[in-house]
């Protein structure tokens, strides 16, 4: 008798969901996007209560895409945030790279002027960080975001995300455009040197090599793959990348002394080179630093994760208001 009651209850719930889905479809077709949005949120709460995470994710993603195609950016962004919320609650997502791709697609479809896009971007990076155990966020997430900013010609933001993407080829090509649009020809070497040193501090040597090779080979001011380059700083970076595999601290220090005038052009290089000496040449940590690398890019993490508590409070309040006005499924 209990099994019969349970089956009847499930059938009733399915019938209620199907009625809302049918009504939702009519709302979309008639252009009543507000009503459709409310019904998506109603289904979201119902699916979550039943722990139907896969169904919930598919519903929300497809709904968000439909809103965005119809230029309903606020509603699309809101459903995107519910996708992240569902991914966080589901915890064990079998194909998380698929959802990284999908989140990247959603973010790219939202108008850059929509405030919620930045919130979705930050929460997506944070989720990708948690699911991949990469404190900076999954490299694929950064690659997708970097490419989006590049296509929007927001080169500074593209540079930031390419730095964490492990896509040296894309990073090098973007830096060429950045240096040509934001700097003088005499500053060309500064653009690539800073990024390569930062990548090395992130222990991304292969990305650093790829970025440098792409930049120097294709940049019209340089157009060379090997030294001697006309710009001494480029020669320094080239030899540094070759020297890292040897681990010879004395030669590293000699190289730094030799190119000291070029290195001194940017005061931040000294900090990076101190970290590189510790990471790759077994140098003792500088006495003024208690941490050989953990704090160097803490600002990158803070940019993504600051203010999440406030966002969560706002989202919870919005959810509560919507929940109170949910459509009756039964």
Walk me through this protein's architecture.
The structure is a single chain. The protein has 330 residues and is mainly alpha-helical. The protein has helices spanning 2-30, 33-49, 53-69, 73-90, 96-109, 115-132, 139-151, 155-162, 168-182, 188-201, 205-218, 232-243, 249-258, 260-263, 268-281, 298-305, 308-324. The protein has two domains: 11-134, Serine Threonine Protein Phosphatase 5, Tetratricopeptide repeat; 137-296, Alpha Horseshoe (Serine Threonine Protein Phosphatase 5, Tetratricopeptide repeat). It has 17 helices and no strands. 35% of the residues are buried. Residues 4-9, 290-294 and 303-330 have low confidence and may be disordered.
SSE blueprint:
Elements: H1 2-30, H2 33-49, H3 53-69, H4 73-90, H5 96-109, H6 115-132, H7 139-151, H8 155-162, H9 168-182, H10 188-201, H11 205-218, H12 232-243, H13 249-258, H14 260-263, H15 268-281, H16 298-305, H17 308-324
Helix pairs in contact: 1-2, 2-3, 2-4, 3-4, 4-5, 4-6, 5-6, 5-7, 7-8, 8-9, 9-11, 10-11, 10-15, 11-12, 12-13
GO cellular component, one term: BAT3 complex
Keywords: Cytoplasm, Transport
Subcellular location: Cytoplasm, Cytosol
Any guess at the CATH architecture of the largest domain?
Answer: Alpha Horseshoe
Output the CATH topology of the largest domain.
Serine Threonine Protein Phosphatase 5, Tetratricopeptide repeat
| Model regions low in confidence, pLDDT < 50 over at least 5 residues | 4-9, 290-294, 303-330
- Strand tally: 0
Protein name: Golgi to ER traffic protein 4 like
Organism: Pseudolycoriella hygida
Keywords: Cytoplasm, Transport
GO cellular component, one term: BAT3 complex
